[in-house]
Amino acid sequence: MEDEILTPPTPTMFRFPDEATGMAALDAAGLIATDEDGNQRPITASHHHALDIVATISKGGEWDPETGEVITPPTVIDGWHVNYLGPLPDGWEQYAVWPRNPTRQWATASPPLGEGYVRARDEEGKFLPDDPATPDVNEAWVKV
After folding, report:
1. Domain ranges of the chain
2. Which of 79, 80, 126, 135 could form a disulfide with 22 if both were Cys (CB 3.0 to 4.6 A apart)?
């Protein structure tokens, strides 16, 4: 019998309306632990998941280089943001987002060529790299 090559789950980005909603979703998914001081903390990694709490995202803004005073305040993006890799917890579908230019993501967060592409693999199932000598072709991804 041939070994099945497993494709890892794709990292997904989530925007919860606020931190309380996000923390409640993490708790419902079993992704909260209580530390020795009694504080609840997200479980950021296990054998089955990885979690990146991005929280509030701000873009832009300008500060005086000498005083550090705000000249133009940054724009705050609505919501409380989380990047997650693993089995999708129940009820999280409604919070999934696919930003065109993510603020923070894992290196394999999405196919750079769009939907319908997967990572290219050699005959042993190992990922193939992109060839820097061919800037117009990304050999690390193939159309399915």
Report:
1. 11-99, 114-144
2. 80
